[in-house]
Amino acid sequence: MTAHPSSDCASIRDLIEVHALRALEPADADRVEEHLLTCRACDELSRSYQTFVPLLGMASPSVGPAREVRASLLTTIRAEQAPQPARPTPVRAPQAWLPARLRAWRIPQALSAPTIGLLLLLGGIAVSSQYQLDGQRDRVAVLQQQNIGLSSHLEAIRIGKETYGTGVRVMAFSQAAPGSPASGLLMTGPDRQSALISLWNVPAATDSLHIILGSDGEEDVALGSVEIDASGVGSVQVTLPAAIETYDSVRIVQSPTSATSSSADLLVLDLASQSAPVVAAD
């Protein structure tokens, strides 16, 4: 096995991330596997990606149907399952003695019932089709956002490996705001004082976020800010005043939206209790 990258490594490394997710075409997958047997550098990179694949579930929160759609579906199901009252059989009087005008009026009324039923059926189909179309659009939007989050997650890990080498330590932020899809990682090098922060799925209305270091009994330290692009992704490399173990928490804070509002935590990394998921690269 070759220890140094070969001329094929550049093209193979473009496929390694997708290969770790088992999403390559068979021909490309065979090509990557054959290369990994002979190249130690690419094999180590592939193993590092496979180490972080189980963490991808933390990148995107689960998404349920919209409240309005759920309520409408439940109402429709209850209506269909409700027992229908028995309709009494009308007792018809012999029509021989009815005036001709009355008999002529009753016939169109009877014939209009199927027409009304057909209109109701068409209306129900139209409403159902609209709900299905809205649901498809919602699912496409969710999948697009998850794809952005997945790509950002893998790219952050790749950059962390390249920046800090095998001594990189990866810690995942937790959501501080209920219902927020925002996620992120903090990676530190062997000195534990240089840090790379990568965020994704940040709400679109956010332009920048502030990084706050917290320590019990001490004043919070404002470390800097992270610029967020239109897709809700942002990253920044910072230098901590002291080693990461010195602090109890790292908070990602939104700026106040108005003069009367206050800042709010979006993400938090709890270092004091070590509740943050931690992965130390080999």
Explain what this protein looks like in three dimensions.
Strands 7-4-3-1-10 form a 5-stranded antiparallel β-sheet, covered by helices on one side. Strands 2-9-8-5-6 form a 5-stranded antiparallel β-sheet, with no helix packed on it. With 282 residues, the chain is α+β, with helices and mostly antiparallel strands. 42% of the residues lie in helices and 20% in strands. It is built from 5 helices and 10 strands; from the N terminus they run H-H-H-H-H-E-E-E-E-E-E-E-E-E-E. The chain is flat, with a radius of gyration of 31 Å.
Topology readout:
Layout (H helix, E strand, L loop, with lengths): L8 H12 L5 H13 L1 H13 L14 H15 L18 H65 L4 E4 L1 E2 L7 E6 L5 E7 L7 E7 L6 E7 L6 E6 L9 E6 L9 E7 L7 E3 L2
Antiparallel strand pairs: 1-3, 1-10, 2-9, 3-4, 4-7, 5-6, 5-8, 8-9
Helix pairs in contact: 1-2, 1-3, 2-3
